[in-house]
Specification:
- The protein has about 160 residues and is mainly α.
- The protein has a single domain, classed as Cytochrome Bc1 Complex, Chain D, domain 2 (Orthogonal Bundle).
- About 60% of the residues lie in helices and about 0% in strands.
- The chain is built from eight helices and two strands.
- The chain has a two-stranded antiparallel sheet with strand order 1-2.
- α4 crosses α7 and α6 packs across α7.
- The longest helix has 16 residues.
- The structure holds heme C.
Length: about 160
C-alpha cells in the first residue's frame, strides 16, 4: 500500500490504460474482418479442436458423444428451444438473466436451420450459457475459427 502511494501517477495512468485497451480494436477479430465461414476449413479445425473428446469423421476420442450424435442432440435442443428457455427461467433465473440477450437472439431466429446455427454459435462461445449443467467446457476459438466450424456444422445438421 505504502509503495503504491509513493507513485501517485500510477493512480492516473492505470485507468487511462484500461480505457485505451477498451477503445482500441481487438487484434483482427472485430466483426468486420471476419470472412464468411468455410466448411472445408471448419472440418479441418474440428478435426484438430474437437477430437480430443468427440469422434469426428474417422478419428477422435470417446470422452464425449461422437459428433454426429452431439449434433442430433443440438438439433433436438433447438427444435424444442422454447421449452429449454422456460426450464432455465424456472430453475435458474440468475443464469437466465445473465444469458437473456443471447437467448433472445436465438429465439429471434424463426427459421430452424438459422436458429440451429445461432444456437451453436452461442454454445461454442460459452457452452453453459443456457444450461449450467452441460458437461462440455469451453474450447478457446477465435471468432473466425468459430465461424468456419459452424459453417461445417451447418452442413452436418441432421435433417429430421
Ligand atoms: C474436452 C472435451 C470436449 C471437447 C474438446 C469438445 N467437446 Fe463437445 N461435448 C463434450 C461433452 C462431454 C459433451 C456432452 C455434453 C452433455 O452431455 O452435457 C459435448 C457435447 C457437444 C455438443 C452437443 C450439445 C449438447 O447439448 O449435448 C456439441 C454440438 C458439441 N459438443 C460440439 C463440439 C465442437 C464443435 C467441438 C470442437 C470445437 C467440441 N464439441 C469440443 C466435450 C467436448
Amino acid at each position: 500500500m505504502g509503495g503504491f502511494m509513493r507513485h501517485p501517477a500510477l493512480l492516473l495512468i492505470a485507468p487511462a490504460l484500461l480505457l485505451a485497451l477498451a477503445i482500441l480494436p481487438g487484434p483482427s477479430c472485430s466483426a468486420d474482418t471476419i470472412e464468411p465461414g468455410d466448411p472445408v476449413r471448419g472440418l479441418t479445425l474440428a478435426k484438430s479442436r474437437c477430437t480430443f473428446c468427440h469422434y469426428v469423421e474417422g478419428r477422435g476420442g470417446m470422452i464425449a458423444p461422437p459428433m454426429d450424435k452431439a449434433l442430433s442432440t443440438a438439433n433436438l435442443v433447438v427444435r424444442d428451444y422454447e421449452n429449454r428457455v422456460r426450464d432455465l427461467k424456472q430453475k435458474d433465473p440468475a443464469a437466465y438473466a445473465k444469458a437473456q440477450a443471447v437467448i433472445d437472439a436465438v429465439l429471434a431466429e424463426k427459421d430452424h436451420a438459422k436458429r440451429y446455427e445461432r444456437w451453436l454459435d452461442a454454445y461454442l462461445t460459452d457452452t453453459k450459457f443456457d444450461n449450467p449443467m452441460t458437461k462440455m467446457g469451453n474450447v478457446i476459438l477465435s471468432d473466425q475459427e468459430r465461424a468456419h466450424i459452424i459453417a461445417w456444422l451447418a452442413i452436418k445438421r441432421p435433417t429430421q
